[in-house]
Amino acid sequence: MNIDFGRLIINDSRPLVFILSGAGLSAESGIPTFRGKDGLWKNLYPSEIASDTALKERPEDVFEFTTSESERPPPVCQTPLILQLHNFSSRLKNYCDVVHVTQNVDNLNELAGSPSVFHLHGDFQSSLCSRCKNTFPRLGLYKKDNVCPVCGASDYSVRPNVVLFGEMPYGLDWITSYLKKACVFMSVGTSGAVYPAANFVLDTEAAIRINFDIETGKRKNARFTHEITGPCSQTLPPVLEALKEELSSRFEDQKNK
Ligand code: BV8
Predict the structure, then answer these.
(1) Which protein residue has the closest C-alpha to ligand 1 atom 62?
(2) CA 197 → CA 157, 176, 187, distances in Å?
């Protein structure tokens, strides 16, 4: 699908591209999605195991579930797509900001050299202390007696720094403002099943709002101006290239004025 980026409305001297990603971005690196046919949660009700209530009432079950997640095979890190996403934002950095907010808890983007990705739902490589609320690198697996390196709390206090259902996602204090500022909003590989991330497309004022999913019309949302189906490793790179061309030519025109 060709997108006419010539229609792009850029109100700021420095345009902002907002990318929201989900498990579909990591799927081709070998990390299972959550709700797909072979998804992590195919036999689970997430609200029963990945929720604040479950953590309070049955911490041992939540810890056991997260241990199974940590024992997943390591992903194939350097997939071309993850690298192209990183190159896209680094090549535009002189004249455009790219904010990549991911719902994923894996560290694929960091492994590809993209430290700037923001984890809306936390990340599995770090731990959070329920008592002092500090975060720190995860050590080994989650056990009841792990001790917080900051306040010394134990007894399930040291938990995964992953936002459970019923818990406040990270970044909501600035994300809405960036959604309003963005000239392009891209939603990549997410089912749109989880809120408030699924509402981001409603909050953005971007003239061009693109949904990339491998399946057609799963959760069609009329707010998208474009729906592109197919593996994002194939559908996303040409769109990023076309957008980069448009933005760089506008930047050159601006410079030569
Ligand atoms: C909150 C942690 C208070 C564990 C996760 C309205 C507003 C606000 C909240 C709610 C609301 N309505 C309901 C709620 C409550 C709840 C919610 O959303 N419930 C749902 C079930 C209805 N939300 C919350 O509790 C959130 N917190 O509400 O705080 C608040 C109140 C008001 C305003 C703000 C805040 C907390 C949500 C976070 C929950 N934690 N996980 C863990 O990760 O281990 S959610 C879980 O789902 C993951 O984190 C994951 O990131 C997220 C989304 O999943 P997807 O990434 O989309 O993955 P999925 O498998 O579903 O889909 C994959 C997609 O990829 C598919 O479409 C597939 O077709 C596609 N795909 C596959 N391969 C490819 C591909 N696409 C392209 N290419 C491919 N190759």
Answers:
(1) 191
(2) 27, 11, 10
The model's pTM is: 0.93
> How confident is the model over 206-232, as pLDDT tens digits?
999 999 999 876 666 789 999 999 999
Closest protein CA for atom 41 of ligand 1 = 164
* pLDDT tens digit sequence for 78-114: 677 888 888 888 888 888 999 999 999 988 888 877 7
190, 214 contact by CB (below 8 A): no
Give, for ligand 1, the residue of 123, 195, 229 to mutate: max count of ligand atoms closer than 8 Å to Cβ.
195
* Coil/strand/helix, residue 243: helix
Structure tokens at 169: 């996602």
Q: In what order do the strands lie in the sheet with 97-102?
A: 118-119, 97-102, 16-21, 184-188, 208-213, 226-229
- Minimum CA distance residue for ligand 1 atom 43: 105
> Ligand 1, from 34, 71, 84: best to mutate by most atoms within 8 Å of Cβ?
34
